[in-house]
Amino acid sequence: MFSLSGRVALVTGGNGGIGLAMARGLAQAGADVVITGRDAEKGKAAVASLEALGGRAAFLAGDLAEAEDCKGLADKAADRFDRLDILINNAGIVARKRPEALTLEEWNQVLATNLSSAFLCAQGAYPHMLAAGGGKIINIGSMLSLFGTAFGAAYGASKGGLVQLTRSLAAAWGPENIQVNAVLPGWIATAMGATARAEVTGLEARVTERTFARRWGEPDDLEGIAVFLASNASNYITGAAIPVDGGYAAAG
Ligand code: NDP
């Protein structure tokens, strides 16, 4: 039920952090995995770590803030291992600023990287999933898909938008056996998590206190949901936004 043997996955931003952890989960379940990012050195190391798990892996360099880079990505990934079954839209950035200080350029950069790239990559993946008889798209949202913060105008808009994009794609492509879901990670100890801890006074303790698990998440905490949503085990789940947050969103 959870086997991904014979399937090919594309994970954007898969060269580090949460993306690499999810790519690891898919590789362990038997998928061949294509990861992307801007940093080719990180990409090379990530591919080696995925190949060490026994499957095939490849890195594609590209800047997902650029529409042209997004458009060809699914075709390139499908060319690499002859098909494309799974897309994880994970690449993301944050502009941690109050709205009155946020420039239009920063706003556009965040929206292009986090939201428009997901739309364009999904559009690129669609014909390959149709050819395969179905597919799985997983969009990585955030707690800021649900909550507001004073420093999250662009990021929160992009992550809230991803949840609505998820529902729209699920509605459009459900009849064609393509399931589209969002994962909403809690506070996770990655490079992005480290800048949040450093830049937001008191965040470290506030998160630990509110999270039922009483700890920040680790990238590995996202491996299981990636395998579940990419596999046949989730074939009747679509249009959902699932928190993986140690209970943070359920806390009063
Ligand atoms: P990292 O900063 O560790 O990783 C971000 C990834 O995105 C990297 O692989 C990076 O690769 C890639 N990326 C960023 N910008 C671009 C771009 N313009 N083009 C291509 N790739 C890009 O962050 P996380 O692993 O923490 O974040 C992964 C996702 O999870 C993001 O969408 C984030 O918003 C989300 N998330 C994270 C949370 C956390 O607490 N850490 C909480 C909730 C959601 P490269 O640098 O090589 O370009």
Bound molecules: NADPH dihydro-nicotinamide-adenine-dinucleotide phosphate
Number of strands: 7
Number of domains: 1
Distance between the termini: 35 Å
The average pLDDT score comes to 97
Shape type: globular
Beta-strand content bin: 5-15%
Helical fraction equals 40-55%
GO molecular function, one term: glucose 1-dehydrogenase [NAD(P)+] activity
InterPro entries: KR_dom, NAD(P)-bd_dom_sf, Sc_DH/Rdtase_CS, SDR_fam
Enzyme class: oxidoreductase
Family: Belongs to the short-chain dehydrogenases/reductases (SDR) family.
What does this protein structure show overall?
With 252 residues, the protein is of the alpha/beta class. The protein has one domain (8-187, 220-241): NAD(P)-binding Rossmann-like Domain (Rossmann fold, 3-Layer(aba) Sandwich). Helices cover 45% and strands 15% of the residues. The chain contains 9 helices and 7 strands; from the N terminus they run E-H-E-H-E-H-H-E-H-E-H-E-H-H-H-E. Strands 3-2-1-4-5-6-7 form a 7-stranded parallel β-sheet, sandwiched between helices. Strand 5 (135-140), helix 6 (153-173) and strand 6 form a beta-alpha-beta unit. It is globular and about 50 Å long. The N and C termini lie far apart (35 Å). It binds NADPH dihydro-nicotinamide-adenine-dinucleotide phosphate (NDP). Residues 13, 15-19, 37-39, 42, 63-65, 90-93, 113, 140, 142, 185, 187-188, 190-193 line the site of NADPH dihydro-nicotinamide-adenine-dinucleotide phosphate.
